[in-house]
From TrEMBL:
<feature type="domain" description="Formyl transferase N-terminal">
    <location>
        <begin position="4"/>
        <end position="181"/>
    </location>
</feature>
<feature type="active site" description="Proton donor">
    <location>
        <position position="108"/>
    </location>
</feature>
<feature type="binding site">
    <location>
        <position position="64"/>
    </location>
    <ligand>
        <name>(6R)-10-formyltetrahydrofolate</name>
    </ligand>
</feature>
<dbReference type="InterPro" id="IPR004607">
    <property type="entry name" value="GART"/>
</dbReference>
<comment type="function">
    <text>Catalyzes the transfer of a formyl group from 10-formyltetrahydrofolate to 5-phospho-ribosyl-glycinamide (GAR), producing 5-phospho-ribosyl-N-formylglycinamide (FGAR) and tetrahydrofolate.</text>
</comment>
<dbReference type="InterPro" id="IPR036477">
    <property type="entry name" value="Formyl_transf_N_sf"/>
</dbReference>
<keyword id="KW-0808">Transferase</keyword>
<dbReference type="GO" id="GO:0005829">
    <property type="term" value="C:cytosol"/>
</dbReference>
<feature type="binding site">
    <location>
        <begin position="89"/>
        <end position="92"/>
    </location>
    <ligand>
        <name>(6R)-10-formyltetrahydrofolate</name>
    </ligand>
</feature>
<comment type="pathway">
    <text>Purine metabolism; IMP biosynthesis via de novo pathway; N(2)-formyl-N(1)-(5-phospho-D-ribosyl)glycinamide from N(1)-(5-phospho-D-ribosyl)glycinamide (10-formyl THF route): step 1/1.</text>
</comment>
<dbReference type="Pfam" id="PF00551">
    <property type="entry name" value="Formyl_trans_N"/>
</dbReference>
<feature type="binding site">
    <location>
        <begin position="12"/>
        <end position="14"/>
    </location>
    <ligand>
        <name>N(1)-(5-phospho-beta-D-ribosyl)glycinamide</name>
    </ligand>
</feature>
<dbReference type="GO" id="GO:0004644">
    <property type="term" value="F:phosphoribosylglycinamide formyltransferase activity"/>
</dbReference>
<keyword id="KW-0658">Purine biosynthesis</keyword>
<feature type="binding site">
    <location>
        <position position="106"/>
    </location>
    <ligand>
        <name>(6R)-10-formyltetrahydrofolate</name>
    </ligand>
</feature>
<protein>
    <recommendedName>
        <fullName>Phosphoribosylglycinamide formyltransferase</fullName>
        <ecNumber>2.1.2.2</ecNumber>
    </recommendedName>
</protein>
<dbReference type="GO" id="GO:0006189">
    <property type="term" value="P:'de novo' IMP biosynthetic process"/>
</dbReference>
């Protein structure tokens, strides 16, 4: 059974979907804790499911490095096999990435390497793209530059706003995350092999 810590910053819609999937019989992963960098509304999903929560407020530390050390200490208490960033709106310090990579994955609302960064949906619309997407990647020290585990296209429709496009991307992102965690737990995706995530991106599992 793969043990997972999930980190969030907001409402935790992806987290809620993963909690529901992990509660299903036969799902090969369990969420052992959920953490946040602020008093995030999404922590309530974990509390309702009886999952331990922790908060490491970014504002409470004098530097990003100090915050990262505290975050790593909090995560280490649960000794996870995998750390999932699910809407964590904070760039992890190198010390945290080095501690968990490649067992550290992130969701992103675009078809990477297109539109990295915090405003992916807005950037896709501003660029006049006719398609965007969703991706699950291995986290590295860059901004959405890690190896791609899986990704899927989502069409941009005439008249789309940032909200309407994002609402269509979110279900795809959730499905990809649930499937990626399952396949990591089953050994279908080997995060220790840098070539494995890239091959999965070329041949996405549906």
């Amino acid at each position: 059974m793969l043990s997972v810590v999930v980190l969030i910053s907001g409402t935790g819609s992806n987290l809620r979907a993963l909690i529901e999937a992990a509660a299903e019989p036969g799902y090969p992963a369990r969420i052992v804790a959920v953490g946040a960098d602020r008093d995030a509304a999404g922590l309530a999903h974990a509390t309702a499911a009886g999952i331990p929560v922790f908060t490491v407020p970014y504002s409470a530390y004098p530097s990003r490095a100090d915050w990262g050390e505290a975050l790593r200490d909090a995560i280490d208490r649960f000794a996870p096999d995998l750390v999932v960033l699910s809407g964590l709106m904070r760039l992890l310090p190198p010390s945290v990435v080095e501690a968990y990579a490649p067992r550290l994955i992130n969701t992103h609302p675009a078809y990477l390497p297109e539109f990295p960064g915090a405003h992916a949906v807005r950037d896709a619309l501003a660029a006049g793209a006719d398609r965007s997407g969703a991706s699950i990647i291995v986290v590295d020290s860059g901004v959405d530059t890690g190896s791609i585990i899986v990704r899927e296209r989502v069409d941009v429709l005439p008249g789309d706003t940032e909200d309407s496009l994002h609402e269509r991307i979110k279900p795809v992102e959730r499905r990809l995350l649930i499937d990626a965690v399952r396949r990591i737990a089953d050994g279908d995706i080997d995060l220790s092999d840098p070539a494995a995530p890239a091959s999965q991106a070329r041949h996405p599992h549906r």
